[in-house]
Specification:
Length: 378
């Protein structure tokens, strides 16, 4: 297939739904609960609701929404530290747009900007590099945020700044990794998961083998998937087929984009610039060992935490979540967004309490965008 519309063909979708139903019924003959499949990526969550796949799929399969939204899993303390840096004299703070409205304990970056802080939305860290070139008398800070998908571009920007000697450029690093929180979820005795839909864009960078432990150590199938309806449905069918056949392995449905061993140029840049933190705090999951990245000492001149003496450089501050906000439970798949007491009431896209209602990949935003008041009423 060459065009996006071919991956949305109703006839192809119908064939896949029929095959999924047959497989689900076969598995259901030996169990009383549905097959719980977690889609790790927030982009997959939005595709599921955009195309109504949760309504079309057989009742024997239930989607569980995972922690695959980097904005959503960021704890409030890190947002507070962004604001603290941005409000300092002589700083131009740059960020991707989906982080502007994420609430901190005191305020969001958008509110700090309205109060006078020089905060600018950029589309790439290279935009921040250009601002640093044009404003040599000011400190330009880029909010480095995201999974392995966005980590290479930030690493390449730090390398570029080092080559040019742009020491007025720095990165507030909040890059995190996908495999470690999956392990944390699998170690949670309260979680019941039968298989996983693996993230497509992350896997484009790291390949498929970082997920080998899911099958080898926990006996759970995982299929790396694309984002169109037929991609997701075919991936569900592949997971069900593994379960029905009593096997567990890592499979790559998204082979047209995802290479088995990832992107070597991206991986080399990440390895050069970053090292693992001993631990990193995740909203809803707490501290997870080696799940975050920090800038290596040889690039310390471009590390905003070191430059401004903030964040993990001085010890993380614990900031409690907003009372009644269930972001943590939703983020870890223990609760669906409409079950949160604040959903559609105290928390809406116009006045969000939690990051899941703000981010373009948040589960609450997906429910609201495609179900809205109906989901809130339910």
């Amino acid at each position: 297939m060459k065009y996006a519309t071919e991956f949305r063909n109703p006839a192809a979708v119908a064939v896949l739904l029929k095959a999924i139903a047959a497989s689900a019924e076969q598995i259901g003959a030996t169990r009383t609960k549905p097959v719980y499949i977690m889609e790790i990526c927030g982009g997959h969550t939005h595709s599921i609701f955009r195309y109504g796949l949760d309504k079309l799929i057989h009742d024997g399969v239930e989607f569980i929404h995972g922690p695959g939204c980097p904005v959503c899993v960021l704890p409030m303390a890190r947002v507070d530290e962004c604001v603290e840096i941005a409000e300092r004299s002589g700083v131009i703070f740059t960020t991707f747009g989906d982080a502007m409205r994420v609430p901190g304990h005191r305020k969001s970056l958008m509110q700090a900007k309205a109060a006078g802080a020089d905060i600018r939305m950029v589309y790439s860290p290279l935009d921040a590099i250009e601002l640093a070139r044009r404003n040599l008398d000011r400190d330009v800070v880029f909010f480095g945020l995201g999974f392995e998908t966005t980590t290479p571009s930030t690493a390449l920007s730090i390398q570029q700044a080092a080559r040019e000697g742009l020491t007025n450029f720095s990165v507030f690093c909040n890059h995190i990794t996908v495999p470690e929180p999956i392990r944390a979820l699998l170690n949670d005795p309260d979680m019941t998961l039968d298989g996983f839909i693996g993230p497509g864009h992350v896997s484009m960078v790291i390949g498929i083998h970082p997920y080998d432990f899911i099958a080898a150590d926990y006996g759970k199938p995982i299929v790396v998937a694309g984002f169109e309806p037929t991609d997701l449905l075919q991936s569900v069918l592949m997971v069900l087929t593994q379960i029905a056949e009593g096997r567990a392995t890592v499979e790559n449905q998204y082979a047209r984009v995802v290479p088995e061993h990832g992107n070597p140029v991206s991986l080399a840049a990440i390895a050069d610039v970053y090292e693992r933190r001993p631990s990193f705090e995740w909203r809803g999951l707490g501290e997870i060992d080696e799940s975050g990245l920090r800038i290596r000492p040889r690039y310390a001149a471009f590390d905003a935490e070191e430059k401004f003496g903030i964040g993990y450089a001085t010890g993380q501050r614990n900031v409690p979540e907003v009372e009644g906000c269930a972001c943590g439970a939703v983020m870890t798949g223990k609760m669906k967004p409409p079950a949160c007491p604040q959903f559609g009431k105290g928390c809406t896209p116009e006045m969000p309490l939690g990051a899941l209602m703000v981010s373009s990949e948040g589960a609450c935003a997906a429910y609201w965008q495609y179900a809205g008041a109906r989901a809130a009423a339910e």
